Amino acid sequence: MFNSKYVSLLLKVAVVAVIAVGALLTWKFLKPKGLPEGFASGNGRIEATEVDIATKIAGRIKDILVHEGDFVHAGQILARMDTDVLMAQRREAEAGLQRALIAVETVQSRVRQRIAEKAAAVAVVAQRKAELDAAQKRFARTEELASKSVVPIQTLDDDRARFEDAKAAVSAAQAQSAAADAAISTARSEIVDAQSQVEAEKATIQRIQADIDDSELRTPVDGRVQYRVAEPGEVLPAGGRVLNLVDLSDVYMTFFLPTRQAGRVRLGAEVRLVLDAAPQYVVPAKVSFVADVAQFTPKTVETAEERQKLMFRVKARIAPELLRQHLHQVKTGLPGMAYVRLNPQAEWPAELQIRLPQ
What we know:
By secondary structure, this protein is α+β, with helices and mostly antiparallel strands. The chain contains 6 helices and 12 strands. The strands form 2 sheets. It has a 6-stranded antiparallel β-barrel. The two termini are 63 Å apart. The model is unreliable at 26-32 and 298-304 (pLDDT under 50).
């Protein structure tokens, strides 16, 4: 008959043995299988391009329309800046434009007036030339008659004086015509100045309107709000950050491969991503970047063996169309494994076949 303590000890040993055997069998069944030839792997973390939504000019935040974690679409208004000062500046510029337009009309009227004065001056020149011609003919006849003593010398002197007066009148009329030409040129140059002022005022209005439009802060990409950096009522300088977004159209995993494997990776090579938080899914990606400089370098690299320890950064990008289908399931910062197909002819093992959430 066995001692009860001895039986109890045997039972405990048997239980421990069963547990150990079970653990061994479980480990053998669940242990990860080695990758077949033509594949490489590295651990990494899901990342995405970050976009800062910032002010263009200094100002006060009037309102923020989104919260952290919200999904946003390209072109959506995320925040508004106070525009009271800009609206006042635009009204001032619009008043300046009206003044400039009136100035253009005034100068154009002046040009028409100067042209009319020029026409009158030309008519006076013609009149004075006709008078000069008549005075010249009269003086010639009187001079001939005076030489024959038919008319008195006084008449000859009077006609000579009239002839000289007519010549002076023609010169004065021609000078007046030239002055009219100069006045027209001056008035036309004033039109150019006035029109330039109109264009300057229009440009000022466009610039102010652009600042008003930019006071509505919009997202350039589809994404998710990661941080609210500022709050309504805060005054920010030009370029002050208001929000930080994650661009969900540019999501990738960065991982590292040793020299021998990195040298065989080609751009566009197929990659399968398995995240620690969701190992039941296998996400397809493609290599979009391979560093041309090693990221980890030993202090001295003298032998071939040491050169193989150099690690190169590789980036695997998930297709944007796939991201759009699972937009609300995309999370950055998650660690996982990246498996790269180095040989395009190699078949993906069963455990790395694509499996996506429904």
